[in-house]
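Sharing a chain and its predicted structure for anyone who wants a worked example. Both blocks are below, sequence first, tokens second.
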Amino acid sequence: MTLQLALDGAEKGRTLDEAMALARAARQYTDIIEVGTSFVLRDGLAAVKKFARAGFSAPILADVKIMDCGAGLCAMACEAGADIVTVMAFASDKTIEGVVREAHARGRRVMADLLGMQDAAAAARRVRALGADIACLHVAVDAQQGQGGPAAAQVAAVSAACGGMPLAAYGGKAEIMDKVSPQGPVYQAGTLSGNPIATTAGIETLRILKAHPEYYTQIDESAKQIAQALRNWAGEKKRPLQVNQIGSLLCAFHTDTPVVDYDTATASDTSAYAEYFGYMLDHGIYTAPAQFEAMFVSAAHTQEDIKQTCRIISERP
């Protein structure tokens, strides 16, 4: 993730020195420092020069919002010290190409602003095809009154159009987040939520399973073999173990009480499970890393894989 610090507020009387102080305070968290349009309009490119000469390690973005005379205006921004220059996505192809050509000749980058574009994803694809390095999706300050930021679906569409990887995330006040594991009692999960590759892989998996229902029989049989190997080990070693298995899912609970609910599950010996996990991992088998997570058997596991797993289980001390 890249964090861009947008410095604006000249229209409200904020000074360049105040903006500079904010940038310095946030420098360890900032990947791009934006000298906003309001400062450029009020103070000219001297505002960009001031930040470019301040010794920040993060690149300086000049939000000049070029709409015409692309190459010439880009050259002026670059000469002022800008590392990244903005051009509006609704500008002509010639303008955008001119900005890109000039910036890249100087070793600088171009951000295309998607402000006002009705089909932001299509606009993102266009500006990227024209050579822009970054597509910027945001809602105009005037439009934010009551509208808020861009919708999650729009963000995901633009990110995918730019070859990015949209992921789900959440956050909140400290007193709320402190309730989430590991600090708190609430466990949140959602592996690869919103990831288009994971979604595509899931759809393809369903298509394959529909075409090959015999995979279910294969998976179930493989899981049963592993479950039985665990039970056999427990019987031979006289160790407490309950193995719950249904279809491709199974879990080895280190307890002598049948596991049927939360209370019986939490009665398991987690230290014994940790020893089991470590043993399996040391022998090349990556099983569920926690007592309260399930093992998944896949159709990708060959009979050789299953036999090797069962053998390693049987040899556990």
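Comments welcome. Residues 214-237 form the longest helix (24 residues).
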